[in-house]
Amino acid sequence: MKKSLMAAGLAAVVTVLVSGAALAQAKPEILVKQRQSAMTLIGKYWGPMAGMMQGKIPYDAAVVQRNAGFLDNLSRMPWDGFHESTRDVKSAALPNVFTDQAKFREAASRLENEASRLVQVSRSGDEAAVKAQLGAVGKSCGGCHNDFRAKQ
Amino acid sequence: MKKSLMAAGLAAVVTVLVSGAALAQAKPEILVKQRQSAMTLIGKYWGPMAGMMQGKIPYDAAVVQRNAGFLDNLSRMPWDGFHESTRDVKSAALPNVFTDQAKFREAASRLENEASRLVQVSRSGDEAAVKAQLGAVGKSCGGCHNDFRAKQ
Which of A7, B15, B39, B149 is 20 to 30 A from A105 via CA? Predict the structure, then answer.
C-alpha cells in the first residue's frame, strides 16, 4: 500500500514536471481559462448523469456510456492548468491548491480513477452498479471542491 | 454516395433532435459557454501537435497519442451547443451556422472523422503518416472556421 502510494506520488511529480515543461510558454490566464473550460465540460456531461442517479430524469444507458467516456477524458484535463504561475490569477481555486499540492493531486487522481471505473461499469448494463459508481464519481467531485474551491 | 450522404444527413437530424430534447432546459448562454470551452480545449491539445507538424517543437509520439485521444473526444463536444436558441447570443459564430445547418454539420463531421483517424494513425508510430494526418485535421479546423466563424 505504502509502496503503491509512493509510486503514484512519483508518477504525479513526473507528470507535473513534463506538463510544466510543455506549458512553459502558456500564459497564466490561458491556463486558468483552459482548466475552467475542462470543469465547464465536466459539468455538461456530469449533469445528466447526476440527474439519472437522483431519479430526476429517466435512466438512459447509451447517454451514460457516452458521457462516461467524455468524463473519463475530461477528468484528466484540468490539472496541469493549476500551475504555480496561476497562483495570483483570480479564480475559485483556494490557496491550498498550491500549498498542499500532494493532497490536491491525490484528490484529482480520485476523480480520474472513479471516472475510469465508470466507463467500465457503464459497459456492464447493470443499472444499479452504474448508479452506485455515479455516486462514487460525485463524491470525488465534492471531496475536491470542498477542500480546494471557494464556496460558490 | 448519394444514399450514404442522405443517411448521414438523417443521422445528423436525429442527433440534433435528440440533443435538442436533452438540452431543453439549458440556457443559451450556458450552451455558448460550453461550446466555447470545447474549442478552448481543442486549442490546448491541438497547439502542441500543430507545433510538431510545423517542426517548431520536437516530435513526441506519446504526446501526440494522448492529445489525439483527447481531440477525438473533444471534437464531438461543441456541436449541440450551436443550438437554435443561441442564435442571438454574442459569439464569433456567423449567422450561416444556423441558416446552413447541413453544411455546418458536414464541416463539423469532417473534424470528428479526421480526429478519429488521427487516433488510429498515431498508434502506428509512423511519424510521416502522423504528420500528414495532422495536416488533414488542421485543414478541417480551418475549413469550418473560414466559413462559419467571424475573422478574429
Answer: B39
Report whether B151 contacts B93 (CB < 8 A).
no
pLDDT over 60 at B35, yes or no: yes
Rg of chain A taking only CA atoms, in angstroms: 16
3-class SS letters over B65-108: HHHHHHHHHHCCCCHHHCCHHHCCCCCCECCHHHHCHHHHHHHH
Closest by CA to B50, choosing from B140, B151, B149, B150, is: B140
Q: Locate cell 463524491: which residue?
A: A139
Burial degree of B66 (CB within 10 A; 0-12, 13-18, 19+): middle
**Interface test mutation site (partner A, options B32, B73, B82, max chain A beta carbons within 10 A):** B73
pLDDT single digits (tens) A111-145? 999 999 999 999 998 999 999 999 999 999 999 99
Surface of B (77-116) touching A: CB under 8 A: 77
